[in-house]
Amino acid sequence: MRSFELFLPTRLIYGADCLEKLSSATAAYGRKALVLYGGGSVVRSGLLDRVKAALPGVECVDFAGIEPNPRIESVRRAVKVCRDESVDFIVAVGGGSVLDASKAIAAGFYYDGDAWDLVLDHSKIGRALPIFAVLTLAATGSEYDGAGVITNEATQEKLHLGAPNLFPVASFCDPSVSTTVPAWHTAAGAADIVSHVFEQYFVSETNEVSDGFCEAVLRAVVHNAPKAVADPNDLDARSALMLASSFGCCGLLAVGNSPSPWPCHGIEHEISAFHDVTHGAGLAVITPHWMRYTLNAETAPKFAQLGVNVFGLDPKAGVEANARKAIECTAEFFASIGLPRTLAELKVTDEHFEEMAEHVEKFWYPLANAFRPIDRAGVLEILRASL
Amino acid sequence: MRSFELFLPTRLIYGADCLEKLSSATAAYGRKALVLYGGGSVVRSGLLDRVKAALPGVECVDFAGIEPNPRIESVRRAVKVCRDESVDFIVAVGGGSVLDASKAIAAGFYYDGDAWDLVLDHSKIGRALPIFAVLTLAATGSEYDGAGVITNEATQEKLHLGAPNLFPVASFCDPSVSTTVPAWHTAAGAADIVSHVFEQYFVSETNEVSDGFCEAVLRAVVHNAPKAVADPNDLDARSALMLASSFGCCGLLAVGNSPSPWPCHGIEHEISAFHDVTHGAGLAVITPHWMRYTLNAETAPKFAQLGVNVFGLDPKAGVEANARKAIECTAEFFASIGLPRTLAELKVTDEHFEEMAEHVEKFWYPLANAFRPIDRAGVLEILRASL
Asked: At A156, is the pLDDT very low, low, confident or very high (cuts 50, 70, 90)?
């Protein structure tokens, strides 16, 4: 087992009654909040009003318009508002994009230079505004981690920032809120969760505890995403997905494992940096092709383990057959919840593939450390197979 | 899924190199430490010296002699030393007993009355000294929770105290340290971990994520405890057990579940309050008898699930057969690692059974809420069956 450090300072509060605890959770942090959100869905659903009503005595400064794949321009504008208004903390109401943006804003508030510097160099992240997250969508796990992904359109870069003090102070997760999420985003969120787990599960060294934790989260997603897509009001399915999302990125699933360079995320971030595709949909396309690229005699046992422990394959069928079948089960799972099989369906062409491969090499973790090492040619091979 | 709150503020630091981080972790908390430990094993193994060497510039005040099933008298004496010496924090070096005691001492330091009050009434727990835990034994999970169990010999009570601010600030877990733990305590620790999981797994309402997490921890213990007992230096087995222990009591395994009154712990604490038996050994005796008492048409599916997902039983054998077999697998597992099957082997007679049943009724959580409700007669039935 490898050395590791697990630090999960966020108070994770689940349930239909969770907002009742919002006021007491923020009490020690001040009286003025930036309330951050995206489009109109949290307005239309009434959630925004419920959040503000749960903060009596707190002056709320609205900041709307955080986009999917949140942009550094929005972060910069929000940092300025936080400073102009001297807010004490941030209440981020939304899915991964809003929560991710809140982290860059929280750190940007105390940073003298441009917030993009913090994305390029995490050592520049110092103090941060306290963040309180009200989750609407099961996907990124941003409610229980200290990281965020920000897009810079000017440079066509989509990169992450992260630091332990960017964990929300508390996250408020009411699965019933997610019943208004449309099927497409429900499915894309599920693919994002699956990918988070795969990125930590498919590494050279794991253990029985971390594998079991990963498989528990995967089974919850594989069994419940189709139910939530079929019936948006299936609260049990919504609950399972939200719980699965929260544990996806927090470090719990990788305890004692060898490190992972998160290859599918590295490649997908390039796709959604060049084309404004939904992150989870991009992952659903890339992941089975990454699996096919990665499958060899050395990696087959782990793919077969996925097949047996998550997709219920019969171990008697043997490692080789089960490994291949597990990959097809994964692809079928994504397709079954309405996600694309090809980049063409997402209107992505091969125009920027060379640049993407270059970016992965330049900015992402070294993919030479992936479950099967991937070089620049390998990234191109995966991208081309995904077209 | 039930509402829940998960708050895990401890920095959990695993690895052979973990003590390298002790000094930086304590730096912000002061320059004078109470170093708390039990018998001579941490002295003989050299661990105590290594801990002190890892704290340059910190004045260490030794407090030795914390006993298994730690006594309130020791807590009182240690509180006095902490006050007389004006220590800034506690470094607890040991297994569950030392870590549990550190929590009562930490809270007792700031409490004006007698420390036993805090055990009897958790609402009296206020501020607490910061705790840093150096773990030697995989068992109680005290390194990653905010609770402790303290024995009052004068009143023959063994009760727990708990509060969120009693979580250690950081816990340092080097599995190689546990290679010096004798077979008996290794086995008893494994039984303690299994029982922690059972107490949360066998409740009326669970979910796929919490069940999967529980089963991952159980498999790790069932597969690795025999290896660690057979070969104390099996580092992989020691690592799996330590990791399993850390997640046993922190709340992670019960996310979204209906609450549990921890029946086996309620009964076992009575046994070890009246007779100085090893907690885990008492649990190994009680647990299979509690399972047999609890097995009925309603509870059988969950016992069968344990059989299939942890002991590898064939689901085709059917729920009833697998439920019965899972109970026997559990009993055989405990016996296979050298733990007793009867209270008689622990020199426990039926002399105090009536008092024990009364205490459970009076001081423990209501066992009417157990997986199968247990009344006073039921406690007696389980105790008598265990003789």
From this structure: confident
Q: Quick one: angle between helices A235-248 and A183-201, nearest 10?
A: 40
Any B CB within 8 A of A143 CB = no
Start-to-end C-alpha separation, chain B: 38
H or E stretch covering A81: helix A72-85
Residues of chain A in contact with residue B8, where contact means CB-CB under 8 angstroms, are: 8
Q: How far apart are CA B124 and CA B121, in angstroms?
A: 6
> So what's the pLDDT on residue B276?
82
- Domains, in order of start, for chain A: 11-177 (3.40.50.1970), 183-386 (1.20.1090.10)
Q: Do A220 and B243 touch (CB under 8 A)?
A: no
The string of pLDDT tens digits covering residues B317-353 is 999 999 999 999 999 999 999 999 999 999 999 999 9
Q: Strands B59-63, B89-94: parallel, antiparallel or unpaired by DSSP?
A: unpaired
- Measured CA to CA, the distance from residue B147 to residue A167 in angstroms comes to 24
Helix (H, G, I), strand (E, B) or coil at B108: helix
Nearest to B218 by CA among B238, B188, B182, B248: B248
CB-based contact (8 Å) between B312 and chain A? no
Q: pLDDT tens digits for A329-346?
A: 999 999 999 999 999 999
What is the DSSP secondary-structure string of A5-19? EEEEEEEEEESTTGG
Separation CA B101–CA B77 (nearest Å): 11
Model confidence over B31-68: pLDDT tens digits?
A: 999 999 998 899 999 999 999 999 999 999 999 999 98
Contacts of A3 in chain B (CB under 8 A): 14-18
Nearest CB to A220; choose among B7, B15, B208: B208
Partner-chain contact B256 A239, CB within 8 Å: yes
pLDDT tens-digit map of B147-198: 999 999 999 888 999 999 999 999 999 999 999 999 999 999 999 999 999 9
For chain A positions 105-124, those within 8 Å of chain B (CB to CB) are none
Contacts with A, B 47-86, CB within 8 Å: none
Q: Which of A156, A146, A71 is nearest to A115 (CA)?
A: A71
Q: Which residues of A touch B14 (CB under 8 A)?
A: 1, 3-6, 255-256
Give pLDDT tens digits for A258-295: 999 999 999 999 998 899 899 999 999 999 999 999 99
How many percent of chain B have pLDDT more than 90? Answer: 96
Q: Structure pTM? A: 0.97
Q: Give me the residue from A6, A212, A219 closest to B219, CB to CB.
A: A212
Q: Which of A7, A14, A208 sits opposite B256 (nearest CB)?
A: A14
Tokens, residue A151: 């897009």
Q: How far apart are CA A345 and CA A324, in angstroms?
A: 24
Alpha carbon B115 to its chain's center = 21
Q: Is B138 left (phi over 0), alpha (psi -120 to 50) or beta?
A: beta
Min Cα–Cα distance to chain B from A28, Å = 16
Q: Does residue A180 have a pLDDT over 90?
A: yes
Residues with Cβ within 8 Å of residue B363, at least 6 apart in sequence: B157, B159
CB A157 within 8 A of CB A116: no
B16 to chain A, any CB pair closer than 8 A? The answer is: yes
The answer to whether the Cβ–Cβ distance between A239 and B220 falls below 8 Å is no
**pLDDT attached to residue B318:** 98
Q: Do B175 and A16 touch (CB under 8 A)?
A: no
Q: According to the model, what pLDDT value does residue A338 have?
A: 98
Would you state the pLDDT for residue A363?
Answer: 87
The SS3 of residue B132 is: strand
